[in-house]
Amino acid sequence: MAIPYLSSFKVEDLHFDRKNPRLAEFSKEDKTSDEEILRLLWEVMAVDEIVLSIAASGFFPHEQLIVIEEKNGKEQKLVVVEGNRRLAAVKAILEPNLIEGLLNERVVLNVSSAIKQTLHELPAIKVSSREEAWRFIGFKHINGAAKWSSYAKAQYIAQIHKEFGIPLKEIALQIGDTNQTVQKLYQSYRVIQQAEEKRVFNTADVLGSRLFFSHLFTGLSYEGIQKYLQIQKENIDYPIPDNKLEDLGEFLVWLFGSKFRKISPIVQSQNPDLRRLDAVLKNTEATILLKDGSPLIYAYEVSQPKKDIFEQSLVAAKKELQKANSYSSITYDGSLEALQIAGDVAELADALYEFMEKRFTEQQKQNDGPKKRVTS
Fold first, then answer.
1. How many whole angstroms separate alpha carbon 47 and alpha carbon 87?
2. DSSP-assigned states of every residue in 4-16
3. Distance CA 303, CA 280 (A)
4. Burial degree of 301 (CB within 10 A; 0-12, 13-18, 19+)
5. Tens digit of pLDDT for each residue in 89-129?
């Protein structure tokens, strides 16, 4: 194995890493050009903040890149496996036209000519392979100042485990996470891979600009979702049994949507949507309604005890009426339409209160029972 060494490399000879897990949730195309990757990094990974740092203090020599030489197409190229954001910042400073039209593009104009002159070559450690590189990267690469998303971290863990045979426990020690967290991240990533391998889901079909992997990572810890998908906790590489793969594909569309089918994800946030989905999947009737296209909120109400829905509705109605009342003195302009709506609300409230009062009185009588003569 060659000994890693620190040297300087021309910026024009350094290329972005198309296997960078941090790009996976935004792009599935391995043939993406360096220019496209630069624009993507600028848009989603706050490269402009690094530009401002360089403008103020220059490029810190102790923040060297890590590079490997590997085949890219027909050529051998120097690929940056650690420091893609910093490389993007420098390339943008040297060639501002590469980020033309993007948000905060003008920050590159803050970099002085003197600093620009120092940026044509960058310090980097050259290693012989990705297997060697991952140990150099370790904690800093994943849990550093610009922390990775859960999806990027999961993909990186899977990549290291599969390609180099590194045990998950050892990866956990190296990146500074607990063994349990690494196991869960890996299992969640394998769920997506299983779905893609069996062609019941495609990450390129996700609706929106990114895949919100944290919804899946969190959801797989919920009891209702675990039972619905029949998660095999002991089989970390193939957590979903074959008979549940079709359900898995549909479940992932609920989480992430589908561009091709023009379906929006029903989970917009983990709270309350993900918990509501978990509750629905615990109830057979509610699950059938959801699979038939009913809105999540309706299926959720069906899954809940009727008493809970009744009491929650009362609380919600009170809250909304309090809000309307607080605005009435400054916004009500005397319109008949608004007054009629308020009248309808009042009639509904009166009818509801009369019914509840009657039921309450009847209950009290039953509890008290017939009056008896008091004797000594």
1. 9
2. PEEEEEEGGGEE-
3. 6
4. buried
5. 999 999 999 999 999 999 999 999 999 999 999 999 999 88
